[in-house]
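Exercise (ungraded).
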Amino acid sequence: GAVVSQHPSRVICKSGTSVKIECRSLDFQATTMFWYRQFPKQSLMLMATSNEGSKATYEQGVEKDKFLINHASLTLSTLTVTSAHPEDSSFYICSASGGTSKGRTETQYFGPGTRLLVL
Amino acid sequence: DQQVKQNSPSLSVQEGRISILNCDYTNSMFDYFLWYKKYPAEGPTFLISISSIKDKNEDGRFTVFLNKSAKHLSLHIVPSQPGDSAVYFCAASSGGSNYKLTFGKGTLLTVNP
């Protein structure tokens, strides 16, 4: 139980285009979903927290107009990187909480990640 | 200010021996702690957690110990296997409605055959 999928796993795009990444909780309803970014050899950096049906809460320094987050249902959240630039190239990982297969409700289950390369 | 610290960036252990990964925290409001394992280019995998009302939780080869007075927790893996080689992240939560986790920077564990 507590499986999270992410799509696509890898995307290459041209500078200036927008890219949408989907995150789905497959076997549980996620009350909260999170979007992280990981730079090489660094820890996970939380970008934003989203609850179904409400606006995402962005961490300090994260541009909400650049990283659009939609959490339309209890099983789906999307991250859209708008007008992507090479510096947006990174590994983006989503997670979902609300599953209770192990631990408390706030245990986060992570998707496999999306590698974004902006040329 | 780093509230969750993993002071050892790397650890090397022989197969079959015990691996001990350490984590310290500074925020006394944290009451739930988790360990995740991460392979390169993959998302973290939840391993084990512990609530602050306990001092030990065991799941198979994995045991987490919590010392609240020292604000310290550790993950023991025994026996260690080559497949355990990965980056291990410690995370903590203070509850509340947003369920945010604060992560350490990770420890790279290498288990040598």
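Further reading is listed at the end of the chapter. For now, observe: Chain B touches chain A at residues 32, 34, 36, 41-46, 49, 51, 89, 91, 93, 95, 98-101, 103-106 (CB under 8 Å). The radius of gyration of chain B is 13 Å.
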